[in-house]
Amino acid sequence: MNRVESKVRTLARELLRASDFLTLDFLAGKCEVTSRSVQNHVKKLEEWLAENAYDGAVRVIKKPGSGIKIEVDGDRRTELIKAFSDQRAYEADDTKRRIKELNLLLFSSSELTIGFLADHFYTSRSVILRDMEWIDNWLKTFNLQLYKLQRMGIGISGGEAAKRNAISAFFDIYRPNQSGIPVKSHSTLSGRLQDSLVVKLKSLYPNIDIVPLVILLEDAEKKYDFFLTGEYFTTLVTHLVICIARIKGGNETEECVLKEEEYASVLETAVFIARGIEEAYQIRFPSQEIAYICLHLMGYAMRSYLENGGEATEHFEALTMGIIEHVQKNCGGTFTRDKLLYFGLLHHLKTSIYRIKSHIHISRIDAEYRPEYDRKILHTLREITGLVEQSFGRGVVFSDEELENITFHFMLSKAREKRRTRAVLFTASGIAYGEALKRHIMEENEQVEILDVMNFPFQLELLSENQYDLIISTVDFVHRSKPVASLQYEDRDNYSKFLSDFIEKKVKHDFTAKI
Is 127 helix (H, G, I), strand (E, B) or coil? Predict the structure, then answer.
């Protein structure tokens, strides 16, 4: 439903709740307007009823000397009262209808007429025309636009890569009717894809079986010894389903902006996937489509490159450190010392920038699963445009979704900084002294959480090593694998500073040095 002014909605509710005529003066009092204004509002109500195909089932009766009443066929009176009760209902219905119209336009092989859309959604042509303005603005963010052909209807114009990008983004706003759609028809889908994504894929592409594609990607992981984590796997599956459907419909994408030497390290894997798709879905997979598979595999390639001791190009290194320094300067913290943040963000930026250059949409997880982001960090990240342009030119622009994902890297770093180091306290001075020392250390140093107090070495053998990070000892003691912070030669007043320095040098440094 399109928007209705507040006074018109009040007028409609009063008329719908009354069984007899209501006078202009009575309605004017309820709406807090003049009698003349009530007459204007009645006209607007009649126009709204006509626009929304209610003009036959709902009749506004005006009788001189008696007033105004509404006659409604059947049980639609309750439906209309509820509909007029909250403006948010109109806005929600507007959005639902527009998403359904966008669905038809994105997946139609021919133009759609205004008349067809009006009949399909039981509304007026003027409402559909307003909806087309909303849809056109949405499409412009993907370098697409609506066009209209005389006697043919409305369609979407733009490049094939842009259309696929828009379809991928459509998954973020699409809410299908889940009834009758089996979610986990095969055990291989369990754990690799969110149920909501499976439902969307099966709803939009009912003739494409997802299972062979998932099996193929898992076979590629085994053959070439890699593993695509959640986001990469989900994005690649979504891309390939869209790709298969578009190719079956006779739509092939443009050449990828990447040069072959840039994705040579993952080309063999991509070719394996492409040949498997050809066999499973009986289509010809063009060479330019293989390049887009390579683009999605670049994340794995970069991670492997870093793990094997390789260094990223100076542009990525400079951008990564520049972003970290900018956030630390404006938000505080010790981000520049966090190696996990550095390498995680470096890896993230490499794959993201390749994706942005090739106009591939980033998959956004459903709102119910998406965590709340740190608004201060996000606001600071919106100021990094100059850093990005300096490294990669003006063609690379981070979307809000991309900036939110970068924000999560910094949020994890903050959580690591706040997380207490788990320790076991070893003392030969008795359990009472040990318990008192435990309380003293934890009160003085918020970095440390002492899990247990022990008086004998053999007790450590009964505790799993993955349960603690270091040992604090008041006597000389050496452990085969865990760092030992010896307090034997430290003053009691200096315990806190000593432990903070020890954790920074021996625990955090030793851990991040392995990354």
Answer: helix
Task: Compute the C-alpha angle 168/136/51, nearest 5°.
Answer: 115
Burial of 201 (0-12, 13-18, 19+ CB in 10 A): buried
Say what the pLDDT of residue 313 is: 61
Taking the C-alpha atoms of residue 173 and residue 409, their distance in angstroms, rounded to an integer, is: 25
> In 3-state terms, what secondary structure has residue 81?
helix
For 281-319, write each residue's pLDDT tens digit: 999 888 888 888 887 787 555 554 444 444 446 678 888
Q: What is the DSSP letter of 386?
A: H
Q: What region does 393 belong to: left with phi over 0, alpha with psi -120 to 50, or beta?
A: left
Instruction: State the burial class of residue 322 (Cβ atoms within 10 Å of its Cβ: 0-12, 13-18, 19+).
Output: middle
Concatenating the DSSP letter of every residue in 200-240 gives HHHHH-TTS-HHHHHHHHHHHHHHHT----HHHHHHHHHHH
The residue to which tokens 């994504």 are assigned: 197
pLDDT band with cut points at 50, 70 and 90 for residue 241: very high
